[in-house]
Amino acid sequence: MHIYIDTIAHSEQRYPTVGDWQFTAEGGGGQRGTPVEGPVLHIAVSEMKNADYEFLVGLHEMIEAYLCHKRGIREEDVTAFDKMFEAHRAEGNTDEPGNHILAPYRKEHFFATSIERLVAAELNVDWNEYDKTVVNL
Question: Which domain holds residue 100?
Fold first, then answer.
């Protein structure tokens, strides 16, 4: 497996999210166009002008994506749920789609958040400030 994490402008995300992941088919192009075996995971993280914050989002997405992959939860289903959640988001609601009880990847999202919080503490990142930055994008 090959994993690529890119920081992009928030406006370039596929939908309103700070982190997004997609798998491409096995045998896709690797770094510098070399062929690779196995799936390729692409993660897009919104630029926040804070390397720790961007790292934490990328880490969360990598863990969530891999767990979904291992458990047969399709990216298409995760993305469809996220888009539906965002389309029906109540004003003032700052919940993450993965927290919703009907999210097909809820368990994977919660585990990824647990690891994200542990690493944030190790980096001396104030979780409330970090969360505020993510929510305000």
Answer: 2-135
